[in-house]
Every structure is written in C-alpha cells, then in structure tokens.
Design the sequence.
C-alpha cells in the first residue's frame, strides 16, 4: 500500500459506550483501514452513563485525519470524537515511570535533572531510581533522552490523555443539534 | 473539535415499563412480528433449536429453508433490495455463522439493511471451545454495521429492536445478533419497539440550505454539467428516485449512474447516458471526464467508477451528496459536500433550482458533444448467425420480458456487466447485483429472496456457468418453496472475466480459468425437479426464452454462448475515463505494469 508520508501527530479522544468489544471495534478500524496508532489509553470514565474514553494518538495528512474521524463516528458505539490537538483549549498530558540505574556522581546528576523536570522519585535503591513524571509527551521524551546516558533501564508510559480547559465538559455542544429526528422510526 | 453534522445523543434508559414475560426464543418471534417481518430465510441447527421451536407455531411468519447459510444471507439481501425493507436471516452457531460472513460483507459494502440472528452455545460454554462454538461477534465485527452478543434475556427485546433500527437508519447495512442457547430458553420481560429503551439514537440535521444554495449556484452556471447517481438514491426510497427524475428534467442535465444505482433514473429517457465506470458507456465516461460541474448523489467514487484517480474528471467542480460523512473526500476531493439523505437533498435542490433568480446558459453545445459520443455506439458488437453472442442473448431476454413485472439479479463477471449494459431498467429496486464485494454466487439465492417478496413477479437471475455453481444447491430451495425463479446462464465454459483479464493483462496465459468439466445443466434441473432448457443457436433463442417465461416453475436455462467474447467497452486498469477502449481497438491496447497492479 502506498500512503503519503505521515505528517503531524493528532490526539483523538473517543467517547464510547462501555460495552464488550468496543475497544476491538475502534482498534480494528485503525488496523483494517491501515491507519497508525502511536499511543492508546482507555478506561471507563462515567460508570453511570456506561461511557469510556479512548484516547488515541495517530499520525497522518489532514485529509487522512478527517477520514479517521468520520470512520470513527460511524461506529455505533462511538458517542463522540474530539480532536484534542485541534482544540485551542485542549490540555494533553502523559504519565511515565522511568527507571534509571546509576551510582556516584551520575546519581546526583539524575536527581538534579529530575528536579528540573519536576519528576518525582517514587522508589529508590542504592543503585537505582524510579521517577514518575507527568507532562506533555515531548517533555517526557526530553527527560528520557537526558536519562539515557546516565543509565536509563526501563520506561513505562500511559500514552496521551486529553481534556478541555474551562468549566464545560469537552463536548462539541456549542451548537448541539436542535433535534429534528428525521431518522427516528 | 469535530464538526460532524450527525451527533449521537445518549438517551437514558427509562424505567422498564411493564411488558410481557416470555422466553427468549418467543421474544425473537415477537420482535420479528413487531418489526413488520413477514419472511425470513434460515437453516436450523443445535444452537437455534429453541427459536425454531417457537417458529413452529408462528404461522404468520414465512420461513424459507435454504440449503446453505450463505444462501439465506443473499436471499435476505435480495428481499431487502427489492422491497426497501430489512431482510432477515436466522442461522445456527459455528459453521452457520461463518457461512454467513460472505453475505454480511456483501451487504456492508452495498449498504443493504439486513438483520442476521445467530444461535450461540450456552453462556457457560462460551470460551471453552464447545461444539459448534466460534467467536461470532469477533468474526463478524468488521463485516457488520454493528453486532451484539446477548448475555441477558432481559436485554434481548431492546437489542433486537435496536438491531432493526441500526440496520435501516442512516446509511443502511447488515447487523448481527448472537443469542446463546440458554438465553433463548430463559424467561424475561418482552418490551414492544416503542417501549424498549434505545441506548443511542442518531439525530440528523435538516439539509444545509447554504450548501444547497452553493450547489444551485454552481449548477446554474454550468456549461458542461453531469449528474452521477448511485445506490444511495435507491436506498433513500421511491421519493428520491422521483426527485432525481424531476431534477434531471428541470435542469436538462445528462445523468449517469453506478451499477448500484441502475433504475433510479429510467434507462429509456433521452437524458440517460448509461452506466459509467470500467464497463460503462463511452458517452457517460467522456461526459464525466469533460464535465465542468459534477453532481454526485448517493455514490462513493469507487475505484471501478473513477478509473485512474489522478486523472478523474480533472476540470470539474464537484458537489457530493451522501448520508455517510466518511464517504466525503474519501477517494476524491469534493468542493461542495452535503451530508444528507439523498431524497431530502434532491428535493431541496429541486426547490432551490426552481426558485433560482437567473437564466442558465444553454446546454446545447454540451448535448451535441454528447450526441457525438453516443454516435460511437459503444455497445455495438459483431452479430453472428452461428453462435449466440452473449450480448444478443441479453437483448433478446430484455425484449421478451417487456410488459412484464421483471426483477433481475446477477452473479459476478462478464454476464453481470452485459446484463447492466443490455438489460435496461426504468424503475428502482428492480436490479439486484453484488457491486462492492463482487460475490460470485449472489444472484441465485438473491433471486429467491426477491421472488419470496414478489410472488407474482418474473424474477430472473442472469448468471454465468461458473458463478452459478457456487450456490447451485439453492435450486432445491426454489423447488421446495415454489419460487419460480428463472436462472438464465450465459454458458461460455470460461470464467469469462478472468479469461478476459488474462488475455489483456497476463499475456494470454489462461491459468486455471477454463472449466474442463461442467455439469449438464438440463439434467441438473431435472434432478432438482424443475425445468431445464438449452439453447445452442441464435435461431432457437427466442423460442426457448418464450418457453422459459411460460414455465410456471423454476427453470435453469443453459444458454450456450460465444466462448471468447470480451466485455467492452472497458477502461483498462490505470487509465482515465477518456482512455477507454472499444471493441475495435482491443487488439492494440497495452496495459502497463502500473495498471496491472491495480487489479
């Protein structure tokens, strides 16, 4: 398959009915149509309304991203697709756990860098640290790169999460449809 | 933020209203009744026996017993396409469900509303590799619009009603409800369609009038317009076809259609250009290539329609009406997208067109160019007194059936394209063909579904001898249920389209495309208990066709045709609409490597 070279990363928050198989529907769409998933997080967010939130980071030309959004919206279990990257009031965060092995002067250097990045030490032994940090993905990338020469051992990342700033939930409800139910039958 | 025009709104489930207590199996039957189902197609097995038991007493539901589950699926598709209603199939777990995969994929690509009910092993056995267990919802997830595994009998009624809603709403499609055997036996509360909670519903907005105004503005200035209509117009119901006809008359625009859209606009009308695409007409494809404004309604710029995508209608401004937002800009960039039901959009366009303020340019020059293309008579073929030309056979069949209430189904291949080219349709819902998936074996069982829906009509499956053998066993169904379908086989002993491509693209190396052994179709018909007819010569064709049409029962018609006839005209792979070839320039056509890879 020849696709144009992928360009910008886009974060999509997908609100879905929390029912069996819903993750497979969303992920299956990406694989079946040849789209890329760079990160994926999923958890139930509203038990009462049976909704989960799936956050996907994907990459592609703007037309491809539009097509991905339209295809996602076609899935019956998908309630809403939010393009968090396009949202000027969108907040994107990721959590990472980073294990670094070092001794002596390098141990001090690791702590110093961690302080600059506001990473938290959550476990320590005589020759290792585990740092916890949250932030934008590129900040975590930068931290990881600095830790690599010091003695990076292992990384675990959640993938990106997103939310809309301000008092309202991040629905697109500024112009919610004024309900003409032509399809109700 | 997304700006989709269709937003789904969650509807909280109201407190369960009082319903009737019954078993899950009885709920299935009751839900079918409440959804207006009169006919279903199926095959029993271990995991659906409770439902079949409930069906035993349901005299108001007609069950057509097929010979293979794939037949049930295609029959339900034929029923759906010829009526505009939802087709229903009922099959068992495991192999019953896997045999249904092809019809589901077929219905998904062609947007056919269908509800398939499958039995499943009891819930406590799921995941244990039980007898006739398979992961039905997993296997069918990518070939249904939606599917459900019912784990609680109290959810069953609501899921069944929602299944019908999802199948028929928006862009129609197939859905599947998988019901474990213990859920069929269990008792629960049945809720009628208007009482059952619906988990989600789609709210559609009214047609965007600003887009309508933009479209009319473009159309009013067009000097070389064309309307390209598709299956969406048929799916939108008779109102949409009516609106299309009136719009075409009002605008004086030429109109072409996809394979799926045949019949929405009458083929007998002078403004009809014929089908477009790979085996479409010379005039339709040239008009598409040279037009300045294209109005696409309910079609999806499929690769069989566009030919080489970067050379597709290069100079036109494109207006695209589709109910499915994902169809917009999927293959071809369009200038004015309009997400709406085809019928509503066409009616809005028509109203705005009639109210347009200014005079529109004359289309005389454009029509005279079209007449020049028409003068090429692209469907001309060399007649023969010796052998029956397949094109001639379809022409004679068409002539013999004028004045009859006719429905045509097809299999897939050369005969399908010849049927589309030489059999003409003046009404929607009369043409049932596997367009998207290209399923050989579709036509015969689909004809059963059409005939079950229209008992008095003349239903003909125009077939090839290779395709028809894929679902030939359903002749037995036709005999059992007195469904007098006529199977008109264009028998050239080759997988004709494969042979044609091997000739044109693969250096005439005919790898495994000739059937060295074929059944005697006349004897086969007799073995099934119906009539078999063979025609070998052009001179006997009319008489034999008349004999077929006069027969009150099912008929297998073995029409022995010219063996190596090619289906033309043709846009070769990797070529543009204006590079299509006619019968007379076939010999010096070369298809390059890039084209060959395109399929």
Sequence:
């Amino acid at each position: 398959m020849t696709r144009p070279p992928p360009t910008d990363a886009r974060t999509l928050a997908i609100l879905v009915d929390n029912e069996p198989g819903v993750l497979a529907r969303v992920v299956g769409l990406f694989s079946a149509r040849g789209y890329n998933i760079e990160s994926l997080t999923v958890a139930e967010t509203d038990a009462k309304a049976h909704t989960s939130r799936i956050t996907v980071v994907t990459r592609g030309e703007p037309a491809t991203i539009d097509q991905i959004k339209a295809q996602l919206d076609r899935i019956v279990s998908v309630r809403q697709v939010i393009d968090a990257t396009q949202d000027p009031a969108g907040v994107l965060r990721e959590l990472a756990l980073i294990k670094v092995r070092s001794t002596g002067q390098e141990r001090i250097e690791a702590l110093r860098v961690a302080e600059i990045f506001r990473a938290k030490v959550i476990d320590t032994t005589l020759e290792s640290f585990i740092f916890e940090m949250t932030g934008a993905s590129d900040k975590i990338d930068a931290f990881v790169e600095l830790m690599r020469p010091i003695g990076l051992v292992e990384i675990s990342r959640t993938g990106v999460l997103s939310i809309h700033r301000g008092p309202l939930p991040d629905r697109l409800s500024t112009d919610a449809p004024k309900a003409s139910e032509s399809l109700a039958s | 933020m997304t700006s989709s025009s269709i937003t789904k709104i969650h509807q909280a489930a109201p407190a369960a209203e009082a319903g009737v207590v019954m078993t899950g199996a009885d709920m299935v039957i009751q839900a079918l009744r409440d959804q207006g189902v009169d006919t279903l197609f199926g095959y029993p097995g271990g995991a659906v026996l409770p439902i079949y038991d409930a069906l035993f007493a349901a005299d108001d539901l007609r069950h057509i017993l097929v010979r293979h589950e794939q037949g049930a699926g295609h029959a339900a598709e034929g029923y759906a396409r010829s009526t505009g209603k939802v087709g229903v199939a009922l099959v068992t777990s495991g192999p019953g469900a896997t045999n249904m995969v092809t019809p589901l994929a077929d219905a998904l690509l062609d947007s056919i509303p269908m509800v398939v009910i499958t039995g499943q092993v009891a819930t406590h056995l799921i995941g244990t590799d039980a007898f006739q267990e398979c992961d039905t919802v997993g296997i069918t997830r990518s070939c249904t619009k939606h599917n459900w595994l019912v784990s609680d009998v109290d959810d069953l009624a609501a899921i069944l009603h929602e299944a019908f809603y999802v199948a028929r709403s928006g862009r129609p499609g197939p859905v599947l409800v998988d019901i474990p055997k213990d859920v069929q036996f269990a008792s629960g509360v049945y809720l009628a369609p208007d009482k059952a909670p619906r988990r989600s519903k789609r709210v559609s907005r009214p047609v965007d009038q600003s887009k309508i105004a933009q479209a009319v503005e473009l159309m009013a200035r067009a000097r070389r317009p064309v309307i390209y209509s598709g299956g969406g117009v048929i799916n939108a119901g008779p109102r949409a076809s009516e609106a299309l006809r009136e719009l075409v008359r009002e605008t004086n625009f030429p109109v072409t259609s996809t394979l799926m859209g045949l019949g929405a606009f009458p083929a007998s009308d002078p403004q009809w250009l014929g089908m477009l695409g790979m085996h479409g007409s010379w005039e339709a494809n040239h008009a598409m290539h040279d037009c300045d404004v294209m109005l696409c309604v309910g079609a999806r710029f499929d690769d069989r329609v566009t030919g080489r995508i970067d050379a597709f209608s290069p100079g036109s401004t494109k207006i695209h009406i589709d109910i499915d937002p994902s169809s917009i800009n999927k293959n071809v960039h369009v200038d004015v997208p309009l997400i709406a039901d085809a019928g509503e959009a066409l009616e809005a366009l028509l109203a705005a067109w009639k109210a347009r303020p200014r005079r529109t340019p004359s289309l005389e020059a454009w029509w005279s160019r079209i007449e020049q293309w028409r003068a090429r008579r692209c469907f001309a073929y060399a007649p023969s007194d010796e052998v029956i030309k397949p094109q001639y056979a379809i022409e004679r069949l068409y002539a013999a059936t004028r004045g009859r209430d006719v429905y045509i189904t097809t299999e897939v291949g050369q005969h399908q394209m010849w049927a589309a080219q030489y059999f003409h349709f003046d009404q929607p819902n009369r043409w049932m063909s596997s367009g998207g998936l290209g399923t050989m074996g579709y036509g015969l069982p689909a004809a059963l579904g059409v005939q079950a829906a229209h008992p008095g009509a003349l239903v003909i499956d125009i077939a090839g001898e290779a395709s028809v053998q894929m679902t030939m066993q359903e002749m037995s169904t036709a005999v059992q249920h007195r469904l007098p379908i006529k199977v008109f086989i264009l028998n050239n002993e080759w997988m004709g389209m494969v042979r044609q491509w091997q000739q044109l693209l693969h250096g005439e190396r005919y790898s495994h495309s000739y059937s060295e052994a074929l059944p005697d179709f006349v004897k086969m018909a007799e073995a099934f208990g119906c009539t078999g007819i063979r025609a070998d010569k052009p001179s006997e064709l009319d008489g034999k066709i008349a004999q077929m049409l006069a027969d009150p029962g099912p008929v297998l018609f073995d029409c022995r045709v010219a063996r190596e006839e090619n289906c033309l005209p043709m846009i070769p792979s990797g070529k543009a609409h204006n590079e299509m070839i006619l019968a007379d320039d076939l010999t010096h056509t070369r298809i390059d490597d890039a084209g060959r890879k395109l399929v």
